Amino acid sequence: MFKKILAVIGFLAFSFTASAGLITDTTNGSFIDETTGLEWMDFGINNKDTYEYVSSQLDSGDEYEGWRLATKDDVYSMMANAFLGLGARYENANNHLPGSVYVNDGEGIVGSVLYHLTDIMGYNRELNSGLNSEFQYSFGLFAGTHGLSRIEMHRMTGSYYDLAVNDDAFIMDYTNYDSKATSTSSSYSTLLIKNSSVTSVPEPSTLAIFALGIFGIASRKLLK
């Protein structure tokens, strides 16, 4: 019986940390996709600049020196690693195109399995601040299948929206967004990456801590 308890605890702890640990935070205004080893610039940093400007500022001595534009393959991989397998209410790994991720979760409950990823990745804008309809969102531009494409992420933080509306994340790679290359809207970031050279900030695993507590109780009972 004790071995069965250990097996269940181990499985739960591993399942949680395996999914939560794929995308980790840094203190460098970025997050790391641990599967690929790529470091991604947080949302809310280069959204002050247009895609056209950011693309011109990647050489030595430029504002975004050391970074490079994320490719379509980079974006597809990061979105899959970040959002698939978290237990979202709905997930589709091939929404409009093969590899074009769409996930949503959270309607009818407080928070969602996607909620913590906004804390890690940042966001571009917050609307209706302080109201029960408050929410945060980000658009990220990249060179996709038909020209410029984008990813979208929304997190509902107001008390009403949190319960009534899903958090979601998805890739919009079936429409051309070339017109957004010169957009000055702070809704849009340019997706930038580099090979990771920083140490990620470990995330505490609530479930893992809970599992260790159960393990301790079970051990004490066994020894009595």
Break the fold down into its secondary structure elements and pairings.
Elements: H1 2-20, E1 23-25, E2 30-33, E3 38-41, H2 51-55, E4 68-69, H3 72-83, E5 90-92, E6 102-105, H4 115-121, E7 125-127, E8 135-144, E9 147-156, H5 159-164, E10 167-172, E11 188-190, E12 192-195, H6 206-223
Parallel strand pairs: 8-11
Antiparallel strand pairs: 1-2, 2-3, 3-12, 4-12, 5-6, 6-10, 7-8, 8-9, 9-10
Mean pLDDT: 85
- One letter per element, helices H and strands E, the order comes to HEEEHEHEEHEEEHEEEH
Radius of gyration computed on alpha carbons: 20 Å
Shape category: globular
Structure write-up:
The protein has six helices and twelve strands. Helix 1 runs antiparallel to helix 6 (206-223). Strand 8 (135-144) and strand 9 form a beta hairpin. The protein has helices spanning 2-20, 51-55, 72-83, 115-121, 159-164, 206-223, and strands spanning 23-25, 30-33, 38-41, 68-69, 90-92, 102-105, 125-127, 135-144, 147-156, 167-172, 188-190, 192-195. It folds into two domains: 1-21 and 203-224; 25-199, no CATH class. It is α+β, with helices and mostly antiparallel strands. The strands form two sheets. Strands 5, 6, 7, 8, 9, 10 and 11 form a seven-stranded mixed sheet that branches. Helices cover 30% and strands 25% of the residues.
Question: In summary, what is this structure?
Answer:
This protein has 224 residues and is an alpha+beta fold.
